[in-house]
Amino acid sequence: MGKSAGNILAVLVLGASLLYWFHTVGEPWLRPSPPASQSEWVQALNQHRSLDENGKGKVFFGAAKGCNLIMIQLESLQNFMLYASIQGQQVTPVLNRLARESLYFPYIFQQIGRGNTSDAEFISNTSLYPIGGKAMSEAFGDRIIPSLPRLLKTSGYTSRTFHVNEASFWNRDELYPALGFDQYYDKPYFPATSFNHFGASDEELFRVGIQKIRSFRERGQKFYTQFVTVSSHSPFVIPKKMKRIKLTKDLDKTRLGDYIHAIHYADYALGTFIEQLKRSGVWDESVVVVYGDHFGLNRQLHKPEEVSKALGVPYHEPISRLNVPLIIHLPGQEQGRVIERTGGQMDILPTLANLMGIDLVQRKFTVFGQDLLNVKHHLVGGRYYLPEGSFFKNEVLFIPGKNGFRDGRAVSLRTFQAIEDRTSLKEDYESVLRLLKQSDSFVKQLPRRSENIAIHRTP
User: Fold this and answer.
1) In the chain, is it the N or the C terminus that has fewer CB atoms within a 10 Å radius of its CB?
2) Using CA atoms, how far apart are residues 252 and 365, in angstroms rounded to an integer?
3) How crowded is the C-beta side of 88, counted as CA atoms within 13 Å?
């Protein structure tokens, strides 16, 4: 085990004692013993803590400092698919195992606007709200946007993003330079054979990606790579030979059955990538992040009771539809934790910044999300797929009505039951409306890029 992996293991053990909201999965999280003495314990703890504006310690700060970052955005992946099974067959065996060995956040919710997948890329890389009615790639692709690639660049990282479709789709050829990526790999880099309407398979996406990653490692170059998958994209039609799970007669050849097939294949392809990362040695040197971009099951085509009956899991509209998984795996981590902190896609950047030792306050870097490893109470706003001013907070989803807060409704994220007394939520509703306006104002004042600042396809 490398030096960085060993250091991270020690920090994970220390952090576990402070994160009181964690719930253990299986055996004790990490196998290594704690430091030999109390003084060593305190010394190691202080080495990986920073102070927030209230003078309190931040857990896990710098635990993954200097590690590579690999971010995988899985198309149409909803959280309820994890641990679901059909006739004893796991739908997502690779993700299930990864979640058991990682930090798993089961209460994360999509925050995308009209830009869908491209908005998810924007949010995870900026911690800003989308404006809703227009894709952020189209509305602000001409700007210089504070981002994760730019943060990491100051620490010597190179950044690359991979997507098998044309970069012009959703104006990504403008979005990527706006976000500060050094290079993108799109359709011309992948085989001409098509897996679905959008291009090559996820396996090909990862095959090309691992080649580039190995070249970075050979040169001793720290890197951030983003992978945007498409094999599980609606309408979920995949080649027959790629269907690896056996469905019941009731599910076979239905749209829900197609969704299950597509997610099962995407899970398999992810597994091939993880195996290649392990064989190359990159796995032990990298933070690997996996999250869903948005829902797959359209509410107009799938009734909650239909989904629940088919998969034997609770399914609620809109909670289950908007709930996407977030998994963060650290080098050397062998057993995981379930972190039941409610959050959104804009929390990915501040959470990773903390792990990688980037002090956002010191950098004067504006974020609208929170570090999920250090926040106790969190307000997560939504728009577009929910009415403006909707929010998730701790165990509650609030959705305003036609008259705003007055005729809004609240639902428990845990029990799916209606919450009758909404009085205490009014201040949160007003706060979310202010946050949305502040985020919009921030993005609109960002400087425009010069015409000659762009990135292109290069060998």
Assistant:
1) C
2) 49
3) 0
> Among positive and negative, which fits the CA dihedral 279, 163, 183, 190?
positive
Classified as helix, coil or strand, 65 is coil
Name the one residue in this structure whose structure tokens are 């880099």.
189
Q: Which residue has the tokens 């059909």?
A: 86
Report the 10 Å Cβ neighbour count for 17.
12
What is the SS3 assignment for 260? helix
pLDDT tens string, the chain, 459 residues long: the values are 444 554 454 444 444 433 333 333 332 222 222 333 334 423 433 444 454 544 456 889 999 999 999 999 999 999 999 999 999 999 999 999 999 999 999 999 999 999 999 999 999 999 999 999 999 999 999 999 999 999 999 999 999 999 999 999 999 999 999 999 999 999 999 987 789 888 899 999 999 999 999 999 999 999 999 999 999 999 999 999 999 999 999 999 999 999 999 999 999 999 999 999 999 999 999 999 999 999 999 999 999 999 999 999 999 999 999 999 999 999 999 889 999 999 999 999 999 999 999 999 999 999 999 999 999 889 999 999 999 999 999 999 999 999 999 999 999 999 999 999 999 999 999 999 999 999 999 999 999 998 555 565 555
Angle 111-258-346 (CA atoms, 0-180°, nearest 5)?
15
Structure tokens at 415: 């029990």
C-alpha–C-alpha distance, residues 81 and 351, integer Å: 24
Angle at 98 between CA 162 and CA 158, to 5 degrees: 30
Residues in the chain: 459
